[in-house]
Queue: 2 jobs
Job 1
Amino acid sequence: MAKPYLSPVYFSTYKDFIPDFDQFMQVQASLAPVFVKRNSLKCSEAEFNQFLDRHLKDGAFESVKKVNWVEDCFEINAPRAIVGGLWEHHIGLYYMLGASSFIPVKALDPKPNEVILDMCAAPGGKSFLIAEKMNDTGVLIANEPSNARRRILKSSLDRMGVTNTQCTNFYGEKIPDIGLFDKILLDGPCSGEGSLRGTWSRAFDYNRNDEYRNTLQRSQRKLLDRSTDLLKPGGRLVYSTCTYDPEENEMQVDGFLKRHSSMSLIEMNIDGPWEDGIHQFKETTFNPTIKLTKRIYPHRFNSWGFFFATFVKQ
Amino acid sequence: MRHLLSNDELDGLVQYMETRFGLEPAFLHQFSWEKSARDFWMMPKDLLQFSPQDSFIEKRGLRAFNGDKNPPKPTTVFIQRFGRMLNKNVIDLTTQQFQLILDKKLIPNLGREHDKGFVILKRHGFALGCGFVRGEDIESQIPVRMLHTISPKFL
């Protein structure tokens, strides 16, 4: 297998705001670790520890490390194919996802019996985390317009044994008035720079295509606008991406705050090595509250890169 | 098109699951139940009240029973989720028995230890799915597409 290669020029425009940039580049060029999240709907902590011990003994796992800042998440030192091929994975004792993916769900703070919308739900990792936090009660609408991705979503939710979820197939920006939600997660389509750790330069080249970027940003804007209509007064919206690009992150949030005076950013008080959102990019200075948004960098938290913003509706 | 499961149909399920698998009768009554053309679906009561137009819903709740069979067969996903509550007609598989299932072979029902009908197949206490006892053999009902992707090296 060819060695993963990261184009050195790709992130050069971010040099001004990513702290310890050389260290960031080193980590970004390496593959992300394999993480698993225990499914508390199916197995207790003690049972899960037995499972981990069993596979340390039989040699499936070389080592296991509990991940800081997120609950029930473990970094497994083993090939991804082995962790994904175990029978315990197929019966839904755990879910494999990047540890950073937990953080937007922590910001959403789902509670039992709430009514929650996951606007762009596939492949289903965050939907599962939300359903689990709701203790499989209340209502979770997991929406995904792509047929292929929705198949994966449904299969993930089945495997995890979730009962409180309804899968819908709307285009997110055209979700009709099906009701008002206590909370909405908008983990929107993005250029995915944070998830392209240790990957090929070709993927990055494609990502830099201006037309593609513009389409993504238009889509993010429309999704954000629609989410406000679907949120109850006092409701919470979390917008997240797995990219570093300020045009998809802070700039989107800034424009959204200008267009929707009823929405404001809130402080999240989630412990962890996150960086505040940047206040300026190129010629643009953002709303001062943008510092309440958070950035997750892989050299600070060894997972995928992420961005998230938490809003409340007046 | 889905419709609500009738009380008689639900009572039938409750009785069967209690008699065959030892499931507490009150458990299934906590949920709302819908019936599609073939299957029975379970969900929290709130979910049923929050329903966008049917045409946009692809999946609501968990597909819990296959209604084509008589008695209805609990689905693999139901058993995997609630298997810990099922304590009658349970077989905790040995490594050899699990390997037989992966090889799509029958498990011997030595001494006809188990009665004819569905049984719950478990491994290390976790439910994998259903088996079906036919005289001297137990046949796995676990979906083949799942068995195909399981690594036989770490059972």
Note: The two ends of chain B are 41 Å apart (CA to CA).
Job 2
Amino acid sequence: MLRAVEVEFSKMRRSHIPLWTVAIVAIAPFMTGTMGSADRAWFDSLTWLQYVRLGPMNLSTWYGVLLLGLMTAFTFGREYTEGVVANVLTTPARREYWVLAKVFILGVWYLALAVLSVVMQSAWAAVLGKHGFDAAGAWTVLSDTLRIALLLLCTMPVVALTAVVTRGVLAPMILSALGFSAGMIGGIAGWGDWLVWAMPTTIAGSFMQLEGQPAADLATGSWLIAIGVFVVGLFSLVWYVDRADVAS
Amino acid sequence: MSADSREVVIRTYGLCKRFGDVDAVRDLDLTVRRAEIYAFLGRNGAGKSTTIKLMLALLRPTSGSVEILGHRMEPNALRALERIGSMVEAAGAYGNLTVRENLELQRKMLGLRRGSWVDEAVELCGLGEYLDRRVDTLSLGNKQRVGLGRALLNKPEILILDEPTNGLDPAGIADVRALLKHLADDRGTTVFLSSHILSEVQQLADTIGIIHQGRLLEEIGYEELRQRNREYLEIRVSDLKRAAWTLEERCGVRDYVVREDGALRVFSGFDRAAEYTKALVEGGVSVLGSAMSEERLEDHFMRLTAEDERQPAIRG
């Protein structure tokens, strides 16, 4: 298994996608500032912590889902688009390890990006001269961001399964776009307790804040749903790679 | 040593693969023996690649099974895969990595320690000057060499190669031929390769399997094929269709093929050559020439597949 993880890390060498994801996360807080400044009075009234809190909100409601979709499509789909999958699956290593190593890499990669998003959001807040630095509040934002990232990662095996079944990168990207739309609609409609793609909006308080409500915590049942989606997705993915025709 | 006394290392039992309504492989029984070069011949779409993917457990058979080195091939047949090197389809490699990195990656995937394996594969496949070049900057032929290099990294007992000379120039083809010959003769590696380029195989193979429309038409030692090379009477005519009809109806000839180059080849009844010519002329066909000749592998292949196409009822 460790060997499979090492191999997956090696494959990323000189790939542009990891750099692009870092760039997106680094630029996102600047975009928040630019868009937010349309309502100058509101933007100027934001404290340092309020500005930093916009980070997880953005991650949950727009670029987070699409970013993870891109990463998953790249990680699982490239083996097919580059015609390498036959070589990979005929090496004497268990196919489950191949899947699990990719899932592991994606998990580490995405959580690292989530941390980076908070760091960059904090840095931009400082650059913009926001006052009211709050260390305890920053930790809460980091915790929220990581929980949002974990929730989104629960949807990743389903996207990966789409990449493997369709043998490419387009379908998983489309699925991610649909997931993103479902998250937005679900967040507004109040489905954030049971629809995995909408759950991050509950933690981030994305749409609640529009109505002046504070961010809420997810109930245990919601987490169970999210974990269930992850487990079912992962088992389906492993089963498919192991049992179905993987090249024809 | 006669071929039959050697250990069987690959065997398929009634192998079938159906995609929807299409039978890609039908009731295939292959036997490959240790240290031989087995050429699997067929036209495009005959079922060669599907068979290779079934062998490597990349596809699940609709029925039947594959046994390699005594192991039934199925996903995670690790003990067999450890002893097999393979190259399927376009010899895929990671384009963002250099040749060296691709080979190192394969070495890690195989769980081999750092050592001479990579160097040896590089030398065998003539990859030395390309080691630090990204794979996506290489020509198709050199990508094929990288694929071969990857397949050789674990010093396999069996090499399974799907169209290994695709994209190679004549010098590259000769190199691959020499390499495979060296592996089989000096290392005892069993080579199973598919090809639709018959001239390539003619100089290389110990055994030939001919697949057509998913069925194995013949499996024969090349030496045996050479020994029983059939003679034929080639008659060049002005009207192939009428000539074929005339020979069948007037002379009762059944063992013949129609060539696209304006000739008929008749494989029996050579003592009746004069009778054939007369019948053709009387049937309104101009005979442009006739001569006795010997069947080559290409002729043999064409005849077998043509015969198979003429017997749809039997295949049913």
Note: The mean pLDDT of chain A is 84.
